[in-house]
Amino acid sequence: MERVFTPLDCLLPAGNLKFCLLILNQPFDRGHFHCLWSKAALRACADGGANRLYHITEGSQDSFLPDYISGDFDSIQPEVKAYYKAKGCELIETMDQDFTDFTKCLQILQKKIEEKGLQIDLIVTLGGLGGRFDQTMASVETLFHATNITPFPVIVIQESSLIYLLQPGKHKLQVNTGLEGSWCGLIPIGSSCDSVTTTGLRWNLANQVLKFGTLVSTSNTYDNSGTVTIKTDKPLLWTMAIKL
User: Fold this and answer.
1) Rounded to the nearest 5°, which phi and psi values hold at 184?
2) Which of 3, 30, 55, 222 is 20 to 30 A from 44 (CA-CA)?
3) Helices and strands (H and E) in the chain: how many
4) Helix spans in 40-185 (H)
5) How confident is the model over 4-45, as pLDDT tens digits?
6) Assessment of whether the complete model's pTM goes beyond 0.85
């Protein structure tokens, strides 16, 4: 079955996809934030993500209260934690050090979706692609965990970049929202992909191997058709630029 998905629909004021929002502890674009917050069915912060929310909404924090904040609380500032606790936000302490705060927050989010009977199409994560390289890789690893946590697609957005883990099979990505930047890429993280075929890219692949040390599709772009198709035999990371 071909999976059809518009990665940047969530950033369109009139976008059709319903989603939940998860905020991580990294800087994010104010414009993206306001659009995503206003449309989200449920809003969560992973630990220090609450600091980012608190400071980016300075002067109007009362209008931007998350449904819950989770984590081991080693990053959230004491005054931020106290503020949201006083406002009645749910604080969920998760001490398991085998998983990141992102992964643990996603686990809780899926339970909340089920408990509330929310009808959504995807989960949008804000932050997670900047700063420390090990934390960026941890965000990628969470996308692998996500396949066993939630049935919904999970995308990660920070400033001008987006990542989305494609599962084995056929995919059709709609890239005609007008928000797409000039570059895109396909990254074989986790294992090599022995057979990848694409259309809609300037440099397409035809039953080719994607593997570190062999070939990785970076700095690619589109052929102006507005649609990219990808067939892969293994999980494959899609990344794309977002216009700011």
Assistant:
1) -155, 170
2) 3
3) 5, 15
4) 49-56, 78-86, 101-116, 133-146
5) 999 999 999 999 999 999 999 988 878 889 999 999 999 999
6) yes
